[in-house]
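About this split. The held-out portion is used to measure sequence recovery: a designer receives only the structure tokens and must propose an amino acid at every position. Recovery is the fraction of positions where the proposal matches the reference. Here is one held-out target exactly as it appears in the evaluation file.
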């Protein structure tokens, strides 16, 4: 993770306002034999456990790992609310504390860009069983000319000129090279789009929880951004809920049998 980014500072907003991966993604992954009952799954960069929890509720045996203890604590609270059982570990994805050939599936939701890809891909290959799957998932807002996302991204840049994650398409072809270089095969991708409804309050909370705001700015800077963001929403996009376009993208790769 980048040195100046600390998602631990976003833990409360992250848990309350960041939309989790949609159920449609989990259904599609099951068609690839991912997320099945009884499978051993490791979710790396788990954050508040949005993927781990859904896998657990489907009957998988789930372990999850993150570098931020604050996010893990929020994940445990959310798990208790729905009766999910996940075994959490505080640690670094570049040095996984799991045995060789011990997992059927490793998932990475909304986090691959924070890793040293070479080291993490190598570690995932080590920990997966032969025939096991590594799945990388993203769930990204889409900036479209004139929409709320484009305006929000311009405000983030106004308050944090170091932010470099705007203007995305929600597609990540580079990740395919990351995995094929480390011996993964049978790579497949899929994507689909959907609108996610957000109230003004939740959208503001969602943006505070992003890398460009609470994870990298001071409390005063966050306050100043949030004040302007709320005022902009009220004046430019007063109707609620906001319909925020998102793209779900997933890459699935296999560790082949020796």
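Reference sequence for scoring:
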């Amino acid at each position: 993770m980048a040195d100046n980014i600390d998602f631990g500072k976003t833990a409360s907003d992250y848990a309350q306002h960041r939309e989790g991966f949609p159920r449609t993604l989990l259904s599609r992954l099951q068609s690839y034999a991912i997320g099945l009952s009884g499978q051993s799954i490791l979710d790396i960069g788990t954050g508040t456990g949005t993927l781990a929890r859904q896998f657990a509720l489907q009957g998988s045996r789930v372990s999850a790992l993150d570098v931020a203890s604050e996010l893990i604590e929020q994940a445990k609270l959310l798990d208790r609310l729905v009766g999910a059982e996940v075994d959490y570990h505080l640690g670094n994805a570049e040095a996984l504390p799991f045995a060789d050939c011990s997992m059927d599936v490793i998932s990475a939701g909304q986090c691959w860009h924070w890793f040293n890809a070479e080291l993490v891909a190598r570690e995932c290959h080590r920990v997966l069983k032969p025939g096991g799957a590594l799945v990388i998932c993203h769930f990204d807002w889409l900036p479209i000319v004139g929409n709320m996302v484009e305006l929000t991204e311009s405000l983030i840049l106004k308050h944090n000129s170091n932010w470099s994650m705007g203007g995305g398409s929600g597609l990540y072809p580079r990740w395919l090279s990351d995995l094929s270089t480390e011996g993964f095969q049978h790579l497949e991708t899929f994507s689909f789009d959907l609108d996610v409804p957000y109230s003004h309050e939740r959208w503001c909370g969602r943006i505070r929880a992003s890398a460009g705001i609470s994870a990298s700015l001071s409390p005063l800077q966050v306050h100043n951004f949030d004040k302007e963001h709320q005022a902009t929403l009220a004046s430019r996009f007063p109707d609620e809920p906001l319909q925020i376009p998102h793209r779900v993208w997933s890459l699935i790769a296999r560790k082949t049998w020796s």
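Annotator remark: The two ends are 32 Å apart (CA to CA).
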